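Sequence and structure are no longer studied apart. As an example, we show below a sequence and the tokens encoding its fold:
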Amino acid sequence: TGEVKATKFVDDDASFYADLNTGGNLGGNWGINHLYNNVGLNIRSGLAYILRNEDNSGAEIFSVSSAGAIKANGTITASGEVKATKFVDDVSTYYVDLNTGANVKGDWIWDGGYIKVVGYKGITYGAYGWLNKNGSTGSSSGTYNYSITAEKRISAEEFNAYSDIRIKDVVGKSDNVADLNILKKLSVTDYHFIDQKMKGNGNQKKLIAQEVKAIYPQSVSATTDFVPSVYEDCLAVTFNEKSKQVTITTNKEHGFAEGDKIRLFYEENKEELKTDFEIVSVNDEHSFVIKKESPFEGGVFVYGKEVNDFLSIDYDAIAMLNVSATQKLASDVDILKEQVEMLAKENHELKERNVSLENEYGRIKESVVKFAEMMKRVSELEAKFAKYSNSSDDDSSTIILKTADNGTTAVTETMELN
């Protein structure tokens, strides 16, 4: 009924033992508060602990609760399967639930094999960039089904996008003349983002959604998102313990109204948090009130308010508009090339004809010169003939006309003077 003191307990053949200094080799079934014949170690209620320090003052490194929860601060090694539906950290902040999903932190490495995601969820994004199967890039917005989403960039050796006519109801070919006219009206603008922390400070050369909406509305969509309408550190933060409200004062006019949802950035437990709050009331154009159970630990950065008309451009639609317009221009260029080739041919023929005409002109010019010389000579002979006709009868002269073989007329004169 009292204590049995010993350093080692053994069975009759020393096969199984419990040594309080070095450990033991136990056979059969063991239980705490209850014993199952078919269970090697059973804990019916309470909690089993293995403590870090020999004096039992250290934090537990392994525990099993009465509800069956296993908790370990060290490494659990298993050569076989570890079966569970949910794995959690020590404060249940991060977890992996095999039925509902996971919330994990830190770096994860997947070595070997591939990851296949089955299923999706409809998510609305105010703005996003895309890369399609044609190699085109751009940005858009809207609600679509996503299987994987990430807060920051994703890098890979290659991204593959696909499209198949068998999933499309084709209406017809686009009017490339109309598409070209639309494209000519769009204005490319140089700008940079107000939110340079998240989007960078590089110069952008793209379109303005409000302008595109007036010209090509089907390429612009409206969603709900936050805009950096304030985007500055607040001047003051005051916490009211009684009402659990925080009054925030800004340098610039905030433009908020009661009921607006705003986005704030602040630090808590040395971690930067991004939280959305609803405006409880507005004191003036530089001060507003939100509901919060505890005060902010430090400064607060006021990002801006949520709007339901956040416009984004579907640059895929713009790219296809450009393809259609480019095809129209290419067709016009082909026609112009044919016309140029035809004009070049005609010009060559005209040059050849011009050479022929120049040669003909040379021959005609030569004949005209000869003809003029002949007519001059004829005139001279006519003058002499008239002179001789008026002289005495015993005067004699002879005029001989000779026709040359080449068709021209040559005149020779023989005169005999008495």
The radius of gyration is 51 Å. Confidence is low (pLDDT under 50) at residues 49-56, 401-418. Residues 22 and 371 are 143 Å apart (CA to CA). The first strand starts at residue 8 and ends at 10.
